[in-house]
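Morning F.,

Quick status update on the modeling queue. The single chain you submitted on Monday has been processed. Sequence for confirmation:
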Amino acid sequence: MTPDVDVCEEVHVHDDRLRTVAERLPDEEKLYDLAELFKVFGDSTRIRILFVLFEEEVCVCDLAEALSMTQSAVSHQLRILKANDLVKARREGKQVFYSLADGHVRTIIGQGLEHIEE
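Structure tokens below.
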């Protein structure tokens, strides 16, 4: 056992608590999808892109400049963010502008930041 983790000194299963958990636990597919979503947030480049989009709707050129990256590298990360419904795109003539898909993205990042700053 890991020394820094407290464990029960005797085994006693609490059936009432386990029933409550079983009733409320999402199904495996939803848990898998949630884990996959959080993997997307596991890349600091994607987090940096999201922080830029917190402030302003921008095109790939702007993102590349703001983050000192190539447009190709930014586009690759945007594809991942878009595939996971975290950003959306809007075409204006020959340019495509990106923004956050909805307020949930800001909430997820904001709560994560708040948590690590505690």
